Amino acid sequence: MKCDAKAFSKLYEQVYQDLYRYELCLMRDPHEAEDAVSAAVLSAYEHIHKLRKEEAFKSWIFTILSNICKKRLKQVAKEGIQQTEDFFPEGQVEGIHEEDVGLAMDVRNAFFILSEEEQMIVGLSVFGGYNSTEIGKILSLKPGTVRVKRSRALEKMQCVLDGRIFYE
After folding, report:
1. What is the pLDDT of residues 40-73, one digit of tens each?
2. Were 33 and a residue from 23, 46, 102, 123 both cysteine, which residue would form a disulfide, CB within 3.0 to 4.6 Å?
């Protein structure tokens, strides 16, 4: 596909919020998420000629972002770096009920119990609004497999939220 900067910008404009939300969900750190999205956008722009159909841009750039995320998470795990960002930065808790903050923390903790693949599936589904066919294209899985894995991942999260211990 031939694409100039203006056309690329138009395509990117349609997905940038989903890219950031998805990456923030996985990386847990706003700066890391911004860096990963920037790297994905740069890579996508450099390789736009490899994209065959404009309609596939969204899943194509999410695939690039997923691959960058996987590399960064492996690097972080390898180096043993602990990310200690608070879920709610100081000053953002005002006006929010304590129960809501507690629930948000519980949901976040349940999400991070999931495997990397499960996090990606749930993240793309819940935060990105993608259906099983689109997620399957992004992660190279069959739509039925995506639906099963999403269901099981949400079930795991529910077990954690209900206070039950989940063993694989």
Report:
1. 999 999 998 888 888 888 888 888 888 887 787 6
2. 23
- d(CA 137, CA 5) in angstroms, rounded, equals 25
Residue 66 φ/ψ region, left for φ over 0, alpha for ψ in the -120 to 50 degree band, beta for the rest: alpha
The phi and psi torsions of 150 (rounded to 5 degrees) equal: -65, -45
Nearest-5° Cα angle at 73, 131 to 47: 65
The CA distance from 116 to 26, in Å, is 8
Residue 167 burial (CB count, 10 A) = 5
Predicted model pTM: 0.59
Residue with tokens 């990963």: 36
What type of residue sits at position 73?
L
% helix, strand, coil for the chain, step of 5: 70, 0, 30
